[in-house]
Each structure stands twice: as structure tokens, then as C-alpha cells.
Automatic annotation (TrEMBL), chain A:
Listed Basic and acidic residues bias regions: 1-15
Taxonomic source organism: Salipiger mucosus DSM 16094
Disordered: annotated segments: 1-23
Record protein name field: Tricarboxylate transport protein TctB
Entry keyword Kinase: no
Keyword Nucleotidyltransferase appears in the UniProt entry: no
UniProtKB/TrEMBL annotation, chain B:
Lipoprotein found in the keyword field: no
Protein name, as recorded: Tricarboxylate transport membrane protein TctA
One matching Pfam family: TctA
Transmembrane feature ranges: 16-48, 54-72, 106-133, 145-178, 190-213, 255-275, 320-339, 351-374, 386-403, 423-443, 464-483
Entry superkingdom: Bacteria
Domain DUF112: 17-435
Keyword Nucleotide-binding: no
InterPro entries: DUF112_TM (IPR002823)
PANTHER family named in the record: TRICARBOXYLIC TRANSPORT PROTEIN
Alphabetized UniProt keyword annotations: Membrane, Transmembrane, Transmembrane helix
UniProt feature coiled coil, ranges: none
Length: 191, 505
């Protein structure tokens, strides 16, 4: 192994921030496709950067974008050439090691979270997300799932809504009224 | 006198003291829980604290940063998983110690040494920063530009194996930072004629996506693996042990501060260099290095905490971050309307001294949090991933939404999360992306200022570089990093090094 390689040698997926994934002398499934995608995207961005001001002046708004996208194209090209020469990791497959069903499912769940956040409101969406996610991941009974997900949602809501005063979309839950009700209760009806 | 008062602000206001303490406590645990990282925590927290006053917000974040750098060592020792990049070197001898049943002793020594290193770092920050800031006032725009490029390149080249991937990541970050209307000419850049792109991409959405969501998605691969229970006994080390390693820790702290203070190099590099140093100077280690030598634990732990103070030097005086975490802290300062750079020291010296005070306090809390509550610690670290992962995702969504109350930011965050997920899988470092995003504006502005002042003449621009010693040093450094990646470099090295044989196989 490359002595300078400080990557994640157990899982090769860069689980910890400290250790980027990949192998030193092999390519993972899909790695070449990803590199090609980056190259194509970089080329498109370079063309787009050229469209900002062309070669009008060195101080034009397009100068730095063109330089950076050119750097992207060159580095992506080198990565593609280097990756293409490497042998494939024999023991891995895209479906098992890179993009398993679990990850795709969570991608969809998160997208759903984003879509429902405003129309449905934060509390119901988050509750739904946590219940589904925790039930699926832990495989434990409904009692555990509901207690943990609703309990932690309550804690998060109290901390962020009250301590950090973060405003989340209320949606169908009359959150402000609820909060005012509790405040009045806490003040003993004073004022 | 004013300076002293500013440093003591934290102590005179119980609320701030509490927040630093809470931050440090949280940082230690966040750093220690596999699957949570300081970068993730700080980037999510920015969005929650941005409506706060500056002082409380900074107090919390400084605490988390300090605590997190220390907390990363815990999992390195107990599980052989460095909780933060700066703890990579700690695992080399820390984990073997834990395997021998000496986890308690290892944690105890780590705590005291982190405290010691942190102290040295803060002291150097307090002494050096005012001078650096004064020097920085003489910097030309081209020097800032070169510094920014150097910083991004260094993070890209040193933090992982492949510099080309690092360069790609850094350039990508700069491009993200350029999205939106150009502040000088109002020209649209990378907006694809979409209205939502005109305001640019929120860097907080990028950060939370890359460090929160992508990490959480990766953790899905490891849901089944349970935390390993470790027997932890006595952790407060004896005075004799501490005294024995003091001389070494002084040396490694100095290494830590210096490396931390270089733009682009942070605690991870500092820790690795300190580890190497310890290996070289220790004639008779307690055990051979790599099998549980105490020296191999003392060196990186003093260095990475000393590097925190060091990293604040370029961050506060030049506005150039040393690594991903400092880049995020700079982002936090931006959000609170502060502009780190030499003018900060001139305009708001109180703010600088307040941060020094907060770092000092956080360091003391490390000692308290580190040496107590070990029972609670083992409980929290065993939190099942099946609960942890959905919670991280939830917090990421809330965090991305909270900054601008915009669902668009949530989508950006998710997009960058998925992209970061693939980047991690294929060995592209994420640090340079964040550095690029943060430094994009500084780089662009200073390049344009520099080239306009040279009347758009590249020849004059290079003449300027070659006639100024500072610019020349920076320029040579940038060129060297590039050359080091070409076959030319290997040819020179082979000729010099003689028969070193084939490398990299």
C-alpha cells in the first residue's frame, strides 16, 4: 500500500472525516463513472464561465470563474486518466457497497421531508420522518419507535424553538397559539 | 487593562461562562461519538445561533471546537476510529493501549496533555496575533490572493492521498462561492438564468450537506455494527506521569502551534508531525511506537490542541482558515457581521481578546469534562446508530432551513449531501470545498484589485511578485506544490534519493 495513503483502510468509504474513502491502487465500482461525470460537469461549467464575460479583461467578473473551472477540467481529466488505468476492486459492487437500497430509500425519505416541510409543517413532517426512519433502521417494536422518535422530537423542538428561537414552518399545527397558551399558563395568566 | 478586561469577559458574565462550558461538554461528546464530527456540529450550530448576539454564539462555538478536537481522541483510543482528522495520529498508540486494558490511563494522559497543549496554543495566539495583524496590514491584494490559493492547495494536498482530487475539490468550492450576482459588476455568474440562483448558494447549506447529510448517509452502511464496550478504570493520571512527559509536550506543543498557524495546515498535520518528532527524539519509549507508547499519545494530543490556538492566528489576522473547522468558524463570524482580517484587530480588538478568553476557558473545561463523567460517557457513546442517523438528518434539515427560512436551502443542502456522499466514497476530500467556498470572495476580490492596480498587465503583475519578498515566497510555495505532483518532481527526487526503489505500489 502507498505509505502516504491515509485513507480509511477498513471500509474505504470515508466514514470518518479524518479518512477519505477509496483505495490507493484500485478503483471502486462507479468511481470511473463519477470521475467522467465530474469531467463533463466541469466542461459545462467552463463553457458557462466563458459566457460570463469571455476573454474581455483579466479583471472581468468571469476571470476567476474561468480559471477555477479550467482547473476543475484539468484536474478532473487527470483523475479520469489515472482512474481508468487502475484495476477494479473485485470484491465490491455498486448495489452493495456504494449505493445500497437503504441509502436510496433515505434519499427519497429526505426529499419527501423537504417537499412536505412547508405544506404540512415541521412537527408532523419531522414526526413522520423519525418514526419511519427509526422503525426501519432499528427494526424494534412500535412502542420503542414511537417513544424514541416522539420523545427526541419533543426535546429538539423545545431546544430549538424555545432556546434558539428558530422559526420552522408551522403548516397545519397552530404552533404559535400553542406556545402562547403555554406561556400564559407559565405566567399564571399575568399580563 | 482593557485587554485584560476583554479576556475576562467570559468570566464576568455567568451566561457566557455557562455557554463555553456547555459547548466544551457537547464538543467532547460530539467529537467522541462515531458518526458525529465537530465540523458537522459547528456547521449545524451556525444556523441555530445566528439570531443570537455575537458573544454567546462565539462562546458556544469556541467551546465545541476546543472540546471536539479533544473529544476526537476518545474514539481514536477506544475504537480506533479518529473522531476528528486531528486524532488520526492518536489512534496509532492510543488504540493499542486500550487493547491492553489501559484505556483509562490513555484517556487521562490525553486529557491533561490536551489541556497543556491548548494552553500553549492560546498563549502564542495572544502574543503573536497582534504582531501578525500589524504585518498583515502591509499585505498587497496579490499576497492575499496567493495566500488563499496556498491555503486551499495545502488542505487539498496534505489532508488526504490525492492532490489532484484536492485541487478539484478546492476549485469546485471557489466556483460554488462565485454563484450569483457578482458584487462588483452585478453580472450573473453560474446562475443558468434561474432566479433562485441569483442570490448565490448559502455556504451553510453546502457545509451542512457535506458534513451532516453525507456523513449520515455513509453511516447507514454501518447501522448493524455495535459500539465496543471498553473497560475504563482510573483516569486521573499521577503527577509523576505528567511531569515525566512535560519536556516532550513542550516541544510538541510548539510544533502544534507553528503548524496550526500556517494557512492551510491544521491540527491533523500538526499531530502527525509531532508524532514523527516524538519518534525521532525519544530514545527509550515506554514501549515501541505503534504498540502503545505513551510518547506516541502525548505528542499528537498536545500538538492538535496547541494547533487550535495556532489556527486562530491566520484566521483572525488574515481571514484565511487553516482547515475545514476554522473555515466554518470564519463562516460563523461572517454571519455575525464580523470580518476576520487585520482590520478586525484594529477596529474590534475587544472581539479578539474575548475569543482568546473563550479559548482559555474552554481549555479549562476540557480538563473538567475530560476527567469526570466517564460512566455517562460510555453510555452516550453507545447510542445506537439507528436513532442517531435520523436525528442527524433531522437537525441538518432544520439547520439548513433556519438560516434564511427557505426550502431552497434545504434542497441545496440535500444535493450537496448526496454529492458529498459520493465524494467521500471515491476519496475526494471535502475540506478544500469548504475552504474554497469561504475564500472564493476574498480570492476573486483580491485578484481583481491586484490586476487592476497593475493596469491589466500580467507582466507587471509578475514583476510585482518577483520584487516583493513576501509575494515571491508565497508564489514559490504555490508552484512547488504543483510541481510536487508532476513526474518532474519524482525524477528530481529519485536522482537525489538514489536507490529508493519503486514507490506507491
Amino acid at each position: 500500500m502507498d505509505p502516504d495513503f491515509r485513507g480509511d483502510s477498513d471500509h474505504h468509504d470515508g466514514t470518518s472525516d479524518a479518512t477519505p474513502g477509496g483505495y490507493a491502487g484500485q478503483r471502486r465500482p462507479g468511481e470511473l463513472a463519477f470521475a467522467l461525470f465530474l469531467l463533463a460537469a466541469s466542461l459545462y461549467l467552463l463553457w458557462d464561465a466563458y459566457g460570463i464575460a469571455g476573454f474581455e479583461a483579466l479583471s472581468s467578473p468571469g476571470a476567476v470563474p474561468m480559471a477555477t473551472t479550467a482547473a476543475m477540467v484539468i484536474s478532473a481529466l487527470i483523475v479520469v486518466l489515472r482512474t481508468a488505468r487502475l484495476p477494479k476492486v473485485a470484491t465490491e459492487s455498486v448495489a452493495r457497497d456504494i449505493l445500497p437500497l437503504k441509502v436510496i430509500l433515505f434519499g427519497v425519505l429526505l426529499l419527501g421531508f423537504g417537499l412536505l416541510l412547508v405544506p404540512l409543517g415541521f412537527l408532523p413532517t419531522a414526526a413522520l420522518f423519525l418514526v419511519v426512519a427509526i422503525k426501519y433502521l432499528s427494526g424494534r417494536g412500535w412502542g420503542f419507535t414511537l417513544a424514541v422518535s416522539l420523545g427526541s422530537l419533543l426535546v429538539i423542538w423545545v431546544i430549538f424553538r424555545i432556546v434558539f428561537t428558530v422559526l420552522m414552518p408551522a403548516g397545519i399545527v397552530p404552533e404559535a397559539e400553542l406556545l402562547q397558551f403555554f406561556r400564559n399558563l407559565g405566567n399564571g395568566g399575568a399580563e | 487593562m482593557d485587554t485584560l478586561m476583554a479576556i475576562l469577559t467570559v468570566f464576568t458574565q455567568p451566561q457566557l461562562l455557562l455557554l463555553v462550558g456547555l459547548g466544551t461538554f457537547l464538543g467532547v461528546y460530539i467529537g467522541a461519538i462515531p458518526g458525529l464530527s465537530v465540523t458537522m456540529a459547528v456547521s449545524i450550530l451556525i444556523s441555530f445561533t445566528f439570531s443570537w448576539d455575537v458573544y454567546p454564539a462565539i462562546s458556544l462555538m469556541v467551546g465545541i471546537y476546543m472540546g471536539g478536537v479533544y473529544g476526537g481522541s476518545r474514539t481514536a483510543i477506544l475504537l480506533n476510529i479518529p473522531g476528528a482528522p486531528s486524532a488520526i495520529a492518536t489512534a496509532m498508540d492510543g488504540y493499542p493501549m486500550a487493547q491492553r486494558g489501559e484505556a483509562g490511563e490513555a484517556i487521562g494522559v490525553t486529557t491533561v496533555m490536551s489541556f497543556f497543549g491548548g494552553l500553549v496554543g492560546v498563549a502564542v495566539l495572544a502574543l503573536a496575533a497582534p504582531f501578525v495583524a500589524e504585518f498583515a496590514l502591509t499585505f498587497q491584494p496579490r499576497d492575499y490572493m496567493l495566500l488563499a490559493v496556498l491555503g486551499i492547495l495545502l488542505v487539498g494536498s496534505l489532508s488526504s492521498g490525492s492532490l489532484v482530487k484536492g485541487i478539484f475539490a478546492g476549485a469546485f468550492g471557489i466556483a460554488i462561492g462565485a454563484v450569483g450576482r457578482d458584487p462588483l459588476t452585478f453580472a450573473e455568474r453560474f446562475t443558468f438564468d434561474l432566479q433562485i440562483m441569483e442570490g448565490g448558494i448559502s455556504f451553510i447549506a453546502v457545509m451542512i450537506g457535506m458534513f451532516g447529510i453525507s456523513e449520515a448517509l455513509l453511516q447507514l452502511h454501518h447501522v448493524g455494527t455495535d459500539a465496543i464496550r471498553q473497560q475504563i478504570d482510573r483516569i486521573v493520571p499521577s503527577w509523576g506521569t505528567v511531569r515525566k512527559y512535560l519536556p516532550l509536550s513542550l516541544q510538541t506543543s510548539s510544533i502544534g502551534v507553528i503548524i496550526g498557524a500556517l494557512p492551510g495546515t491544521g491540527g491533523d498535520i500538526a499531530a502527525l508531525m509531532a508524532y514523527d518528532h516524538a519518534k525521532r527524539v525519544t530514545k527509550k519509549p515506554t514501549r515501541p511506537f505503534g504498540t502503545g507508547a505513551m510518547e506516541g499519545l502525548v505528542a499528537p494530543e498536545t500538538a492538535n490542541n496547541a494547533a487550535v490556538g495556532g489556527a486562530f492566528v491566520p484566521m483572525m489576522t488574515l481571514g484565511i482558515p487553516g482547515d475545514a473547522v476554522t473555515a466554518i468558524i470564519i463562516g460563523a463570524l461572517f454571519i455575525h457581521g464580523l470580518n476576520p482580517g487585520p482590520m478586525l484587530m484594529v477596529d474590534q480588538p475587544d472581539m479578539f481578546w474575548f475569543i482568546v478568553g473563550a479559548l482559555l476557558t474552554a481549555n479549562m473545561f476540557i480538563l473538567i469534562c475530560g476527567l469526570t463523567g466517564i460512566k455517562l460517557f460510555t453510555k452516550i457513546v453507545e447510542m445506537p446508530r439507528s436513532v442517531l442517523i435520523p436525528l442527524i438528518m433531522l437537525l441538518s434539515v432544520v439547520g439548513a432551513y433556519a438560516v434564511n427560512n427557505s426550502v431552497t436551502d434545504v434542497y441545496w443542502m440535500l444535493g450537496f449531501g448526496v454529492f458529498g456522499y459520493f465524494m467521500r466514497h471515491y476519496g475526494y476530500p471535502l475540506g478544500p470545498v469548504i475552504l474554497g467556498v469561504i475564500l472564493s470572495r476574498l480570492l476573486d476580490d483580491n485578484w481583481r484589485r491586484a490586476i487592476i492596480s497593475e493596469r491589466e498587465d500580467l507582466g507587471r503583475f509578475f514583476e510585482g511578485i518577483f520584487t516583493s519578498p513576501l509575494s515571491l515566497v508565497l508564489f514559490v510555495a504555490v508552484v512547488l506544490i504543483f510541481v510536487s505532483q508532476t513526474p518532474l518532481w519524482r525524477m528530481i527526487f529519485r536522482r537525489k534519493g538514489g536507490q529508493t526503489g519503486e514507490s506507491g505500489k
